[in-house]
Amino acid sequence: MHSLAFWFQSPDTWPAAVLVGAAASLLGLTGVIVVQLRRQVQAAWAETGRIYQRSSARFSSVGDLLEGVLFETDATRTLTYTNQAFHALTGFRERDLRSGLTLHDLFEPDERQRLLEDLETESDSREVRVRSYHLRRRDGAAVPVSLRMTAITDPEGLVGWRGLVAPVPETDDETHGDPRHRAGEQLLGGILREFNETPAEEHEAVLARGLAEIGRILGADRCYHYHASRDGESLVSLRQWYAPGVSPMSGDQRAPGLDQYPWSLAQLRDNGALVIADVQHLDPAEAPEQGRWLRQGITSLLVVPLREEREIVGVLGCETLGHVRHWGPRDRQLLETMADICQRVQGDDQIARRLAQANERAGDLAELLPEPVAVTDTDGVVVVWNPALADFSGMTADQACGGSGPEILETFLPGSGAWLGKQLQALPADKDPAVASNLIEVTDADGGHAWIKVSLRPLADGAGCLLHFGDVTTSKQEESRMRARTERLEQVMAHQQEELEHAQARLVETDKMAAVARMVTGLAHEIDMPVGVGLTAASQLASQADHLSHAYREGLMKRSSFEEFLDTARESSELINSNLQRASDLLSSMQRTAAGQTLEQRRQVQLKDYLGDVLLSLNPRLAEKHVSVRFSCPDDLDVVVEPDALSRIVSNLATNALEHAFDGMLVGEITVDASRSGDQVLLRIADDGCGIDAAQQPRIFEPFFTTAREGGGMGLGLHVVYNLVTRNLGGTLRCESRTGKGTVFEIMFPIDRDVDQDHRLASPRRA
To answer: Do 329 and 304 form a contact (C-beta atoms < 8 A)?
Structure first.
């Protein structure tokens, strides 16, 4: 290390290395200082930003607590801050601020220039300024307010404006106290009364007089009422008024269409009115109509639109020529009320003209109709009475038109007046009333009876009704004769139906007795065989016993003879026993079946056993036709039925199959299958025979229909089955058959049902 004295030597004596090191050390120290300063500056800026954000948040919170409308602008008067009260009063939203909303947009057009002048004077002063203006809401409505403003400045000058707005309620002196406004309200009320009391042809004069009075009350030099032409290319003048001493403008009977006034049309649509206190203050670039107004000498304008279904179809306006007029809200209200009256009168007059035209066309058409017709309006006054009705009623059109429809009808059709009055009262309340008619019986000059039908048809749009008169005496008499013939025919048919039911009942009883006879015959034939076998066996046993007894008395009995006798006795006893048991079973079956057929009472039966007995009784005929039976049924299926009905159904279906299904066949088979289906029994009786022709199937259940009439068939078998199934069992019967594939009858009936006390025969349904 150099001594301390080295550093106190003259620098020109220092070595170069020492100088370089000293410079580097100095630069490093400077960099450290700069970095530290930069960090401190960034921290200060961040803290300043946080302080500004906290300050802005506190300002916004305080602003939202204020009841008054608070706003701030920049130097260009563009809004930069608004509180919640501002949005509630003006209707503008926060996103409207982002679109560049200015202080200029907040006030009525005729007050904006005054506002700008107030802001430009002494703009660098912090003095609080209090002014009164009409604030314009977002919907175009004007609100009187008191505005307190102060400039926002910094050392460099004006940076914006801060303002507090307070609504000023209208006092009675400002609204109703103005004699001009009171006179205007009285005038409008008088116009309405006069309009309701005068005929349509005087409405134009009433409106022209009202427009002149409104112009004088508002202090205008010209008032006008324009309506758009049909093509929309121009505005047609309906009525004009000029103040005394004001020369009418040339060519003002027709003006350019509304699309030629784009700025004015936008004001009418957005704000509901065009309010201009001084045309000179308009911006020509924004309002191109200014030049046209200035050339016509117009200085102030108040215009309101006339609308039809939200579409602007005309205007009603006031103008001043050569002097400025500040239009107030009450002026606008008076003009809008007058516009509503004009629109109402014009609409009613159009309706009246259209109705008159429609009545005229209806009268021309009615003249050509050969039938009596009349037309009334909504009040029931007759407006059309055609010549055919004049001849029909004996009353001319001059006598009828203009009179009350119910009273006129009552004069030549007594009893129809009250009916017509009631129908007319229902017309306004009914949007789409139906055609109504009334039949009136009258007595002609000869004392005979005639019937007149009066029909009422409402006209479109509720314009009235059309009355048609028709003489229906001939058709009424024919209707009476037809009714008498129908009544006699019904009596004859009822008598024939009663006789048919008795005949069917007798046929059913005959079929029942025939079924019993067939069953008894079959059983007798079936019992004959086991009884005959038993008698033969008993006879042989008696012969062997006599032979053995003779050998015994003669002492010729041998052991072998005795043993042979014992064998014969055992075999004969077994043969006799088995055949007698078979006969006994047949007799028991016959007894059970006959008991059911005789009593005709519903009782519980074990379906498998009962159907087995029924099929057993059919064995002789089945054997004769070489037809076998395959039967299946659950053991536990008990039903509550009329046994007689069930037996005859199965017997008739099996007999029908034996008579028709197996013609030309050597052998055949009948299948009887019973099963449970919920609370129903499904009974299927099928055969593998020749089937039923498709053309004959729809008629098989009809009485007396048969394909074997030459063989003695009567055609009652399936008809009786149908009635027994539907009446006695309370079930349904269906048949399926294909030629060469056999036939299936499906019977569905309840396992147990309430007893039906009505025993009338059912009529078979056609398939």
So the answer is: no
Q: How far apart are CA 760 and CA 633, in angstroms?
A: 31
CA distance 379 to 425: 9
Q: Which helix (H) or strand (E) holds 63?
A: helix 16-65
pLDDT recorded at residue 615: 86
Cα atoms found within 13 Å of the Cα of residue 411, Cβ hemisphere only: 12
Are the CB atoms for 749 and 724 separated by under 8 Å? no
| Cβ contact 732:725 at 8 Å | yes
Is the pTM for the entire model greater than 0.90? no
Distance CA 617, CA 517 (A): 12
Please give the helix or strand (H or E) that residue 291 lies within, else none: helix 290-295
What interhelical angle do 179-197 and 203-218 show, nearest 10?
Answer: 180
How far apart (Å, rounded) are the C-alpha atoms in residues 379 and 307? 29
Cα angle, residue 527 at apex, residues 521 and 532 outer, rounded to 5°: 125
Chain-centre distance for alpha carbon 422: 31
Backbone angles phi, psi at 383, to 5 degrees: -115, -20
Residue found by looking up tokens 């099929």 in the block: 615
DSSP for 666-724, please give it: S-EEEEEEEEEETTEEEEEEEE-SS---TTTGGGTTSTT--S-TTTT--S-HHHHHHHI
Q: For tokens 């800026």, what's the residue?
A: 45
Q: Side chain identity at 5, as an amino acid letter?
A: A
Give the 3-state secondary structure of residue 157.
Answer: strand
What is the tens place of the pLDDT at every residue in 424-447?
777 655 555 567 877 777 776 666
